[in-house]
Amino acid sequence: MFTGLVSELGEVIALVQSADSAVITIKSPETVRDLAIGGSVSVNGTCLTAVEIGEDYFVADVMIQTLNLTSLSSLIVGSFVNLELAATLNMRMGGHIVQGHVDGVGTVREISPEVKWTKFVIEIPAPLSKYIVNQGSIALDGVSLTVGTIDDQNNFVTVWLIPETLAKTNLSRLHVGTPINIEVDVLAKYVERLMEKKSTHE
After folding, report:
1. What three-state secondary structure class fits 21?
2. Pairwise CA distance, residues 199 & 202, whole Å
3. Which of 118, 150, 151, 169 is deepest in the core (most CB within 10 A)?
């Protein structure tokens, strides 16, 4: 489990891709201090397992299913990625509950810098729109954000990012057309499941 508060901006320094998997090496001097082999790391909102750890990097295997369902397939050497270690029981939950299980891949449709924030409009997969509410939580590339407005007709979600968020994450490097990992609030999915089960037994 993660909180969606990015702890480090890592850099992809090696990437070996085969037909059904990939091996990714990420430079992350801060993250590796508290990481052990077998530990979980959120990489752009995708939960990966460290299989090798060096002085300032870690290596993770990425399976074909993960490549198919997330934007990690578009990473190249030199890409910057948002990193977060798994939450511990004694830490403050400053964001929201993020599982690192990407629900779908969206597309950046608009970026409008303003004086105190930057407006981002993201097109989301239509099946995910029912889980998103105004002022609710959403994770974009693993970053916990508050939903500003929703355009259900076009499946657009608007968020406003403050300079602090842009400085500490890779969201400042996005451009129109970039794919982005989306994880909706897991609580909404649990409620839906409970309601479905309830209606079946009535």
Report:
1. strand
2. 5
3. 169
Whole-prediction pTM: 0.87
Which DSSP state fits 2?
B
Query: 8-85: what fold?
Result: Elongation Factor Tu (Ef-tu); domain 3 (2.40.30)
Among all chains, which residue has been given the structure tokens 């397939």?
Answer: 73
CATH 2.40.30.20 given to domain 104-193: yes
Instruction: Yes or no: say if 136 and 149 are a contact pair by the CB < 8 Å rule.
Output: no
* pLDDT tens, position by position, 76-110: 999 999 999 988 766 666 667 888 999 999 999 99
Alpha carbons 148 and 74: distance in angstroms, whole number? 27
What kind and span of H or E run contains 196? Answer: helix 186-200
- DSSP strand pairing (57-63 vs 46-53): antiparallel
| CA count, 13 A, side-chain hemisphere, 152 | 7
SS3 of residue 40 by DSSP: strand
List residues bridging with 145 in a β-sheet.
138
- Cα end-to-end distance, the chain, whole Å: 34
